[in-house]
């Protein structure tokens, strides 16, 4: 690939043959080719450095280039380069134990390679569980509009964002969607908490109307991430948990983004006292992105339905690479560092002290709402505060492009109106230095104020 530097950006002159990185709107747009990374920063092929303000795809919880993690992978690879989990190996056994400890109850874990697969596994576990506990009619899954649960067909069917689905629909039968706790544009009005609780009530209405004997599970991110960083009242999380219990609807908590410290708790659901999900899915921060790994942690009471005598009671699910020994060794080291360096507490403190300064931007006419939980922030951008019309794509792209020129990578998503991503995303590595965090706040504030 030939590349040329133009205003600090790399511009493809001959598009590469790599499909993934093809720009979504304009195939001729610049692509950044990274060559190295350290801490919160990566360097492109021209030597320009960028602060990765979105942690890759919100997965680099410990940032780039941790030698300890690299060593853990290499040592494990030398010892046992691969082994299938149709049998077992020690790193996977230890990691399953550790996950159960961290979740604060007895969970059994099935390993895969990604967040999408972790959710697919959860869906199969749920349907089979109901079959084996006398409720074969319970097959429907409910998720929220704006939620994101992955790119494979089942996970995409739970992902209720029109523009991600329109050319791939129809999805898998049996996936339904309910109104999210999105108080900024709520149809309910009232204070945020009141509006969130009404959104919770819609879940119960839906279960009743569908017939609880047909509803298998409710899947939610504690804080919707890919759908515009939506931070509900913790009472919402408690309320939907109670509703699920009441109707024998299993609660799948998608902690793919929010797990491993991102929100200032080890897992996002832990912000809501008394909540213990039936199933917790995770990936990303589980290994800080050093190697691919997904995990589906299932409460022991549910797992029991798969261990009863009978030839068809086991889970019919195999993953060739899921729980790869090197990935499990990396996850164990990653968790060890998160605990040793008190990363979760750090996120709580610096999230408030440093990134929290971004709340000051609420004074700007184009900033409709600043939503934050730990090191996960969404700035909902609008044409003006009164109309709340989403800021147009060109201006959004302008903000992101200007930040990039200044050496700061931020993201956008939201799908507030299908296809319109008017929420700016900031989610830096949890190990970002105080100077890094100041750089993010100053750069983004300057760019927005110059709008
Ligand atoms: N769940 C959530 C909440 C996610 O944000 C994502 C990915 N962004 C996924 C699931 C899917 O994970 P993966 O891309 O690893 O398949």
UniProtKB/TrEMBL annotation:
<dbReference type="InterPro" id="IPR015424">
    <property type="entry name" value="PyrdxlP-dep_Trfase"/>
</dbReference>
<keyword id="KW-0663">Pyridoxal phosphate</keyword>
<comment type="similarity">
    <text>Belongs to the class-III pyridoxal-phosphate-dependent aminotransferase family.</text>
</comment>
<dbReference type="InterPro" id="IPR049704">
    <property type="entry name" value="Aminotrans_3_PPA_site"/>
</dbReference>
<keyword id="KW-0808">Transferase</keyword>
<dbReference type="Pfam" id="PF00202">
    <property type="entry name" value="Aminotran_3"/>
</dbReference>
<dbReference type="InterPro" id="IPR015421">
    <property type="entry name" value="PyrdxlP-dep_Trfase_major"/>
</dbReference>
<dbReference type="InterPro" id="IPR005814">
    <property type="entry name" value="Aminotrans_3"/>
</dbReference>
<dbReference type="GO" id="GO:0008483">
    <property type="term" value="F:transaminase activity"/>
</dbReference>
<keyword id="KW-0032">Aminotransferase</keyword>
<protein>
    <submittedName>
        <fullName>Aminotransferase</fullName>
    </submittedName>
</protein>
<dbReference type="InterPro" id="IPR015422">
    <property type="entry name" value="PyrdxlP-dep_Trfase_small"/>
</dbReference>
